[in-house]
Specification:
It is an enzyme of class 5 (isomerase). The structure is a single chain. The protein has about 110 residues and is mainly α. It is about 70% helix and about 0% strand. Helix 2 packs antiparallel against helix 3. It starts with 16 loop residues before the first helix and ends with a helix. The relative contact order is 0.11.
Length: about 110
């Protein structure tokens, strides 16, 4: 499945590197918006979790990664891309959440 918008061509329709770059740049803007929204959920988690030790939940990490890998397979995204990207994302989100948790309780 490819989400096409007016501001970027479908990958299969690209005939120049300028078109490829235009598509990648447009996707990057969308990814930033989605990541910003994900970060706001980390803000909410830090606000809701009363115990600092619950910020890191290894079972939840593995659950998220398993779901991402399943969705990657469904969408045709290589698991060799999906898994390390999400593990890095999750670790950075956990680090961010610890910082927010500490800040709102100090």
């Amino acid at each position: 499945m490819t989400l096409i918008t007016e501001d970027r061509p479908a990958p299969a329709d690209c005939t120049t590197m300028a078109e490829v770059r235009k598509g990648v740049d447009a996707l990057d803007r969308q990814l930033v918006a989605l990541l910003a929204e994900r970060q706001r959920y980390m803000d909410a988690a830090a606000r809701i979790k009363q115990d600092r030790e619950t910020v890191r939940d290894n079972a939840r990490v593995e659950d998220v990664v398993a779901k991402v890998k399943a969705e990657a397979r469904r969408m045709g995204l290589s698991e060799e891309i999906a898994e390390p990207v999400w593990r890095t994302l999750i670790e950075q989100c956990i680090r961010y959440e610890f910082g927010v948790w500490d800040r709102i309780r100090s």
